[in-house]
Amino acid sequence: MAQANSITLFDLQFASGCTTSPYVWRTKYALKHKGFDIDLVDGGFTDILARTGGRSDRLPVIVDGDRWVLDSFVIAEYLDETYPDRPLLFPHKPYKPAMGFIDAWIWNTVIGAWFDNYIADYHDLSRPDDQPYVRETRTRFVAAPTLEAAQAGREDRLPQMPARLNPLRKLLRETPWIGGDAPDYWDYSALAIFLWLASLATTPPLTDDDPMRDWLDRGFDLFDGLGRHPGLHSLFGLQLKPGDPEPFDRGGMGQAVTPKNVGPGAPVQPQ
Ligand SMILES: N[C@@H](CCC(=O)N[C@@H](CS)C(=O)NCC(=O)O)C(=O)O
């Protein structure tokens, strides 16, 4: 059990000391949500096994007293089960199906869309001793011979990406947080993906006027600015060229997915 209200978290950092892994980011938020101080173990990719005493080659990992817990989702469940009197990460039951959907959608939509466009930056921002490993492993994931070739031409691709997030924008017009009136693990998991993006977005992925900005700013400000590490880049400032698609749906932003049926005469949304 937690000693002096502190839980140890093994971090996965770039050379700036900024966390990059979305799984670690959401675990940081989860620990803070539960009211714990984080005893952070700094480090990068290639020292994970050594840092964790051979227990894991993936992060996050936490140590709570003498209890080691691996995997971000298992950690979140462990925290709610072990500390049910502290604010719950999963106040909505059952949470697993919706969590699985949110995770899959946002992972696919954000990481899937932006990964290649920042993949050479990802390498360059890594700790120097991690860079050969990052290059070797990440080259396997891209459909190009090198990370630099995969990233090349992103100026034309980046403007295509923001509109993919319209379902999330619509939801956030209806509610201050994905979790409702207060943030919970759904928000932290989604925010963590944008923090991953901010850790490597050397050129901005979203326009200044993106309607998600308010939720992102509020989320990054939580817990005394947990998401405001100086190594993070701004997500905003994407410049569009004539002919680029609309970055978000300006027309229907105030509406639910289909307008609420309030009886005859209600507005009809084209299908
Ligand atoms: N399902 C695991 C995934 C953990 C994972 O894959 N972490 C990545 C960082 S996002 C990692 O540790 N990568 C190490 C590497 O690439 O060598 C969790 O939720 O904790």
From TrEMBL:
Region (Disordered): 243-271
GO molecular function, one term: transferase activity
Gene3D superfamilies noted in UniProt: 1.20.1050.10, Glutaredoxin
Keywords: Transferase
InterPro entries in the record: Glutathione-S-Trfase_C_sf, Glutathione_S-Trfase_N, GST_UstS-like_C, Thioredoxin-like_sf
Residue ranges of domain Glutathione S-transferase UstS-like C-terminal in the record: 103-201
Keyword Coiled coil in annotation: no
Domain GST N-terminal: 17-87
The organism's place on the tree of life at top rank: Bacteria
Span of the signal peptide: none
Coiled coil: none
Protein name per UniProt: Glutathione S-transferase family protein
